[in-house]
Amino acid sequence: MSNSRQQKSVHKLGSWRRARYLGGYGSQRLDPPEKANAPAPAGGTPEEEPEGSEGGGEMSTPLACSSRSISGLPLVTLSSLRIQEKFCGTHPSFLVPRRCALRRFDTWRTSAGCRVPIACSVSKKNGNSNTVSDVEFPRDYDELLEQAKTATELALRDQKQLVEIEFPTAGLESVPGDGEGGIEMTGSMQLIREFCDLFVLPEKARTTRIFFPEANEVDFARRSVFGGSSLKLDYLTKPSLFEDFGFTTKVKMTDRVKPDDEIFLVAYPYFNVNEMLVVEELYREAVLNTDRKLIIFNGELDRIRTDYPSFFYPKLGALSKNFLPKLETVYYIHNFKGRKGGVLFRSYPGPWKVLRKVNGRYYCLHQQEEMPSLKEVALDILPSA
Prior knowledge:
Elements: H1 3-13, H2 16-22, H3 33-36, E1 65-70, E2 73-76, E3 118-120, H4 141-157, E4 162-166, H5 181-199, E5 208-214, H6 215-223, E6 232-239, E7 248-250, H7 253-256, E8 263-267, H8 273-287, E9 293-297, H9 302-306, H10 314-322, E10 328-336, E11 342-347, E12 352-358, E13 361-368, H11 374-384
Helix pairs in contact: 2-5, 4-5
Region (Disordered): 24-65
InterPro entries: DUF1995 (IPR018962), LPA3 (IPR044687)
Protein name: DUF1995 domain-containing protein
């Protein structure tokens, strides 16, 4: 397929943001043979798949395709097959027709056969504590979603109206940029669907509206992960001919909201800064002074907190000053790599903790009630621990 035809098909099936990240859905990038044939770690073998399944127990990325296609491109279907948590496998970065073992993105060291406790060996700012954390660092994405669901329920019960869930999708020990953007977005989409299956009661599905960044992303979700779902799918922006230059068509949020809507979930609004401005509008016009709730799922809000000087980006500066302080981060994981790396972790209503993994165990180096800045964690807390 020529590049021009490929791009036209991508535009019909999904969003241009995915085309920019992946170079088209039909592209195939094979790993080197020595990586593809790498043996599994000692003691870790893949679980046998059910009869009739495909893939031979191979590890795959969140974006895996069946042999069906639309407009000459593979239609994304995601399976719920499992593999043992100890199995590592290679993390392939190709798109080939296969069914996938989903949500085992983390390494076998992270997903050991035994439960990994978090021991608080260091303390809060105002005192020492040797107690064991109530919420352990998750060993896999199944446990992570259960923790995020519980934390969100507790926050909403405490009348928190604007909440954030943030964690890496390319692996529990990954950092932003470890995975390809399109694959990370598809991983987030799948995890949002599974979170909603846990969090949203069946009778509440039609009063829960999920906002994706743009209209084409909604079409992609309906054709793949959210096929057959009763959840309402909507969008924040419409693509325009000048999208590559940062221009999108403004969508009036009051026109998108319906009277019976109770919960809004905004999916990964981080590709374009205008998306978060629309989220703030959604909160101001449809959530504030009502009984509705708004959940921001993997919005990478740390970018707004740290990356945009208010002098050059006055609208984002106002967002950081007036909107983000109202937000309760109910579940959060941010990894720091390097010789003195670690992880910033929080599960509502618990404190913020800086953890470090030593010999398969997570130890609490520091904890406090307020969220520390990433700069403080990277330059102060982790080096001094």
